[in-house]
Design brief:
Blueprint lengths: L3 H35 L2 H16 L2 H18 L5 H14 L1 H30 L2 H35 L1
Helix pairs in contact: 1-3, 1-6, 2-5, 3-4, 3-6, 4-6, 5-6
Length: 164
Amino acid sequence: MASTLQTLSLQIFGVSTGFLTAGAIVALSYSTVPIFLEHPNEVSLRHLRALFSSGSHIFPQLATATSTAFSVLAYNAPANGTLRNQYIVAAAGAISIAPFTVFVMKPTNMTLKEIGEQGDEGIKKSGGEQRVQELLRRFGRLNAVRGSLLAMGAGVGLYAALSQ
């Protein structure tokens, strides 16, 4: 059985890290993608590659840490109780960004990456400037959904923590 201090620490960590990470992910959709759309596609795609690279080193680890905190809280919660189920849902919501990224976002991300690696030639082969703009908008929408999944997990975790 976890101590009150351990439980409180995990709750604070899980909820705050979950919401902060979700906010950062969603902010990329609503602040960075519109900036990309205002610049030449070749420049935007180069910056998007850098964004993919930096994001892949930060967000999965933060989502995993958030999910782990909620998983430990679920493990320590009374067996077969509502609280345990709430923390399980919170943990699943937090880590759900991984399969969402792989199975839903990856085709768009890889297409953008490949076009960007080929420069102007890739833009022409992809169907032109409009096609790249469509893909950037799609990335923005999918990224907002990804952040929302993590926010849902953090929200359920907050509800569970406040229900105790």
